[in-house]
Amino acid sequence: MDMSGRGFTCNFLPFLINFFMFSLLCNLALILPTSAYSEDYLHEPVLFGITGLVVEDGSNSSVKYRARLGYDFKKERYFVKDMKREYPVHENITATVFWVGEEAGPENGNISNISSAWDENWTESFGGVDHPDSRNGYLPDGFIPRENPFYVALPYNDLDENGVRKQDALAHVYWAKQYVQADPERSILKNRWIRISRNGQVAYAQWEDVGPFGEDDWPYVFGKALPSNKINSLAGIDVSPAVRDYLGLTGMDKVKWQFVDFDDVPSGPWLFVTSSYGKKWFHPLSSSTFYWQLQGSLRRDIHTDIYDIDLFDASAKTISQLKANGKKVVCYFSAGSSESWRSDFSKFPSSVQGKPLDGWQGERWLDIRSDKVRQIMLSRLDLAEAKGCDGVEPDNVDGFTNDTGFPLTYEDQLSYNRFLASQAHKRGLFVVLKNDFEQTRDLVRYFDALLMESCFENQECHYAGPFVDSLKPVFDVEYDASLFNDKGLRAKACSAAKALGIHLYFMNEALDGSFFGTCKK
After folding, report:
1. What's residue 519's pLDDT?
2. Which pLDDT score, from 0 to 100, does residue 18 have?
3. Please, what is the Cα angle at 77 between 74 and 83, to 5 degrees?
4. Plot region of 452 (φ>0 → left; ψ -120 to 50 → alpha; else → beta)
5. Alpha helices in 392-443 (DSSP H)
6. C-alpha angle 496/497/503, rounded to 5°?
7. How far apart are CA 499 and CA 419, in angstroms?
8. What is the rounded distance in angstroms from the CA atom of residue 431 to the CA atom of residue 330?
9. CA dist 355 → 91, 317, 351, 400, 404 (Å)
10. pTM recorded for the entire structure
């Protein structure tokens, strides 16, 4: 059955649907940039066998929006659970290898990669030469890259020879509409994500340069044409050494690729460092060690890479001294609760303070949906930057799983936590996710490390997987002294932690420095 109107067509799924389904499908036209709806099946079924639909972008029929539908029993209506944009797949494309800092020579057509099309100081921005024969796993050997080692080049540049956006770029680039008002001298292609696969192995990378052997091949990059380049078996994509190694490429191999949106990038080593405009921040290695003390006289005798201390109590002098001794300093503050003893407590209106936190006198849950709360957190991040902190640890960022006194949802928490991470990064601070286990898969793209409490005692260590997969450090602190004092239990826990890729520590719940144990002692 087809129903026409408002310039679109609704093709109903091949089974009976009720009035609410009809309303949803037809009214989607009001909220999505579409020209046609066509039936399709999704990966995950939902209630009543309704799976979903594919929506074509009216401005470019190559791009589709894939929706997954759910049913609200209370309101008796269908709703869109999520919507993902799908880009066309380029198949049987020859891939060649290039790298940051590659000098010009006969093997690469005398093209230097010391600079990129969008960064004159690419090698410096990256942190060094990404030599293909000097590797530390998927990372370059000898330094921690400041940009993503999973990168590619494609033969289209949206900027002309003067560094200004080409007049026709907005007509070709799929996502151009959201950048109509963007800086005309900043590329809207740089840092975009790409999915690349070969023989069932899949890698993700960011677009960081232009090539191979072309810079205006939009019919291929944003269309269905083959690469116009005739060199190296019609090479259509350059890949970095990390992509080469992950896919097992050996020469001019054939791959397939497509654009993906950032929220559709799964956990993996390509998330260890993500390239972005703006300030750079430190990225702790998965091998980094950790010490946590929030009160008491600060111990200086701990041999560790990272110190986690209280933002308000620690002085700028203390932070400077720790950094002078080679430590990275993380500054703790509560982002999900008010604390009556803090200097900025009076800034929280009573309307944003909810129920007390069980077991923590003077603390109340915050309404994280409030703009006022967010403004206070921005001030705290400013304080962290001013004091010289390298990173931050926002606490109590899992309010949606607690009885806060506010109707917080999963999406409310996700939005708030992403806000905290993005604002920390804007200030050059790396950010540690504290607990919030249910959202690790969604937040691994935004946070640089994971701090867990009693994951062995509570049987929650499996939630660390996305961070481990992404080469990001995971720290677990166990408060049960018997787990440390019983050598047999300790050995089992330490063995399990090592297998899971988790750094295991033993501390008292006061975190006052009076007790600290590791798997080595």
Report:
1. 94
2. 44
3. 115
4. beta
5. 410-426, 440-443
6. 165
7. 33
8. 8
9. 55, 36, 11, 13, 5
10. 0.84
Checking DSSP bridges between strand 430-434 and strand 449-453, what pairing results, if any?
A: parallel
CA–CA separation, 354 vs 400, rounded Å? 12
Residue corresponding to tokens 């797949």: 89
* Rounded Cα gap, residues 465 and 445, in angstroms: 13
Structural contact between residues 172 and 222, judged by C-beta atoms closer than 8 angstroms: yes
* C-alpha dihedral, 498 to 421 to 430 to 380, nearest 10°: -120
Distance CA 283, CA 147 (A): 10
449-385-283 Cα angle (round to 5) = 30
Q: Residue 25: what pLDDT?
A: 44
The answer to whether residues 259 and 478 touch, using CB atoms and an 8 Å cutoff, is no
Nearest to 513 by CA among 224, 304, 366: 304
493: left (phi over 0), alpha (psi -120 to 50) or beta: alpha
Separation between Cα atoms, residue 273 and residue 162, nearest integer Å: 30
Distance CA 413, CA 392 (A): 18
Handedness of CA 273, 117, 428, 323 (dihedral sign): positive
How many C-beta atoms lie closer than 10 Å to residue 159's C-beta? 21
Sheet bearing 353-356, strands edge to edge: 337-339, 363-366, 353-356
Contact assessment for residue 474 and residue 501, using Cβ atoms and an 8 Å cutoff: yes
Element containing residue 379 per DSSP (H, E): helix 371-387
Cα–Cα distance, 40 to 31 (Å, whole number): 20
User: For the chain (length 521 residues), average pLDDT per consecutive 10?
Assistant: 33 40 43 31 31 49 64 62 80 96 80 93 97 96 96 97 91 87 90 97 98 94 94 93 97 95 96 94 97 97 97 98 98 98 98 96 98 98 98 98 96 97 98 96 97 96 97 97 93 96 97 95 71
pLDDT at residue 389, rounded to an integer: 98
Q: Name the burial class of residue 99, with classes exposed (0-12), middle (13-18) and buried (19+) by CB atoms within 10 angstroms of its CB.
A: buried
* Cβ proximity of 21 and 11 under 8 Å: no
Q: Which of 295, 319, 474, 300 is nearest to 391 (CA)?
A: 319
Please check whether residue 210 is in contact with residue 196, taking contact to mean a CB–CB distance below 8 angstroms.
no
Give the model's pLDDT for residue 480.
94
Q: What length does the chain have? A: 521
Q: How far apart are CA 202 and CA 255, in angstroms?
A: 10
